[in-house]
Amino acid sequence: MELLTRFESALFVARGERWARIGLSLDALLARPLAEIRRLVADAEPLDRPEGMPLAPIESQEVWAAGVTYQRSLTARAEEAVSADPYERVYTAERPELFFKATARRVRASGEVVNIRSDSSWDVPEPELAVVCNSGLEVVGYTIGNDVSSRSIEGENPLYLPQAKVYDGCCALGPAIAAAWEYDPADRQITLEVRRGGAVLFAGETSTAAMRRSIAELVSYLGREQTFPVGCVLLTGTGVVPPPDISLSDGDVVTIRIDGLGELVNPVRKNS
């Protein structure tokens, strides 16, 4: 499988133990049509593995997210909300819930610290399949996303969604982008593990097969009345929601695994 991986020095493609350098930035690559991207990846110059840790697979792209795409998410949102009606209606509606999640500056790589809000009393990770699109909204690849969320703020009032979702360190992506022409996202297992003091505080799993909406449908709605000159990242919703007695705390470690995409690991810090 071809994995597009960002390092400080350049954008690389990993093919098993072999590495090759793509002669473009991620922004420049995602500004091109899918057919040209495939050719550039195929023609990448073989090199030794670059030094250093991989960066988050994002450069100038916006991160957007879909909500209430799994039955479990619907149940959790309805339980926490003052009124369950908006969530019940959007789950069965023709138009999906889509919202802005993060700029690249707010995104963390695997191994970096994600934040929880200082004014929130109930915070959770949301493990999600992330779709990476080019400027033409063609799907270029897939990675792992963590849509860190304040359930206490969103539950108080749905209009508080931006405050519950968007702040510094609110999102993590990584470790790399699996090329769409080699990776099938259907029926992939997603697991979440939260550790505290070395012990497992919470573990859960789901499958992309449980998504009510297709990736093509979500991308199509995202592209209505919007352009993305250097592509975008779309989180596709979560099917793993910790129970009300579980909330992230300073020092926790969140690990998300998706079959075929590896794992995304992030320590947690509470903003002060």
Task: Describe, in plain words, how this protein is organized in 3D.
Helix content is 19%, strand content 37%. With 272 residues, the protein is of the alpha+beta class. It folds into 2 domains: 2-47, no CATH class; 62-270, Fumarylacetoacetate hydrolase, domain 2, CATH 3.90.850.10. Strands 1, 2, 3, 4, 5, 6, 7, 10, 11, 13 and 16 form an 11-stranded mixed beta sheet that branches. A 5-stranded mixed beta sheet has the order 8-18-17-14-15, with no helix packed on it. A two-stranded antiparallel ribbon has the order 9-12. The mean pLDDT is 93.
- DSSP strand count: 18
CATH domain class of the largest domain:
Alpha Beta
Shape summary: globular
The CATH architecture of the largest domain can be named as Alpha-Beta Complex
Radius of gyration: 18 Å
The rounded distance between the terminal residues' Cα atoms is: 42 Å
Number of helices: 7
Structural class: alpha+beta
Mind summarizing the main beta sheet?
Answer: 11 strands, mixed
Please sum up the structure shown.
The chain has helices at residues 26-30, 34-42, 71-80, 85-92, 151-156, 161-165, 215-222, and strands spanning 2-6, 11-15, 18-22, 45-47, 62-67, 97-102, 107-108, 114-116, 123-124, 127-133, 139-147, 149-150, 171-179, 189-196, 199-207, 232-235, 253-258, 262-270.
Task: Outline the fold blueprint.
Elements: E1 2-6, E2 11-15, E3 18-22, H1 26-30, H2 34-42, E4 45-47, E5 62-67, H3 71-80, H4 85-92, E6 97-102, E7 107-108, E8 114-116, E9 123-124, E10 127-133, E11 139-147, E12 149-150, H5 151-156, H6 161-165, E13 171-179, E14 189-196, E15 199-207, H7 215-222, E16 232-235, E17 253-258, E18 262-270
Parallel strand pairs: 5-16, 7-13, 8-18
Antiparallel strand pairs: 1-2, 1-13, 2-3, 3-4, 5-6, 9-12, 10-11, 10-16, 11-13, 14-15, 14-17, 17-18
Helix pairs in contact: 3-4
